Amino acid sequence: MRIAVITDIHGNAAALEAVLADIEARGADATICLGDIASGAGWPAETVEMLQERGIPCIRGNHDRWITERAGPAMDMQDRIAHAGLSAAQRAWLMDLPPTLEPAPGLLAVHGTPESDLQNLIEEVVAGRLRPAPLAVLRERLGARGMAARVVVCGHSHRPGMVQVPDGPLVVNPGAVGLPGFRISREPAHRQEAGTPHARYAMLRLDGAATSVEMLAVAYDWERAARRAEEHGANPAWPHIIRTGLLPESA
């Protein structure tokens, strides 16, 4: 069985369209989405529509939740754009998504960890950057439910990575479809950069006791996506990272 795993689209319908076309060309049996779907300086309504039209099972990320839970000054730029661009029915759809899914036997899908949509699973912040978390920390975050799974797929950090936990699951983060990096000022303050503007996803192959993983990077019209962010009046760092995969201070 071949399962495509996408996450952290952040309203970038141009990137999502390219990824879905690549998934179709590779012949996946199913696709799942790990959340943070619409929030971003892009096309929030169109992004939701694409997932709904294809019947792709999705889980709720922290930004999907914040679009409804936060209001006024508590909303940041990306959530305000999504809130304004989505219909009430689309916002309700995002809020009603489940926090986790088990789309196949032994496969657990989460946004952050099995218990939190705000905690990274396989990374921790070191000197303002994301670095691999120690196995003891990873096991604690997985908990009994995660440790009992064969494969755990997660998002939230936008950082592609895999960890095989001894006597535990293979943990896979495919990276972000629509936003290759970010800067977070709340504690612990940190930044993440993919280094390229490609849209990223993973293809799992579940055959008997073996699991194969392809970590994929798809070219798309990121200039179009960057211009869209500029039209929204986004902070200049947002279109810059869409174009380059780097924050302005790195470039």
From TrEMBL:
Gene3D superfamilies: 3.60.21.10
InterPro entries reported for this sequence: Ap4A_hydrolase, Calcineurin-like_PHP_lpxH, Metallo-depent_PP-like, Pesterase_MJ0912
Gene Ontology terms for molecular function: phosphatase activity
CDD domains assigned to the protein according to its UniProt record, in alphabetical order: MPP_superfamily (cd00838)
Span of domain Calcineurin-like phosphoesterase: 1-183
One Gene Ontology cellular component: cytoplasm
SUPFAM superfamilies on file: Metallo-dependent phosphatases
Domain of life: Bacteria
Pfam family name, one: Metallophos_2
Recorded family membership: Belongs to the metallophosphoesterase superfamily. YfcE family.
PANTHER family listed in its UniProt record: BLL5683 PROTEIN, METALLOPHOSPHOESTERASE
Protein name: Putative phosphodiesterase
Biological source species: Neoroseomonas alkaliterrae
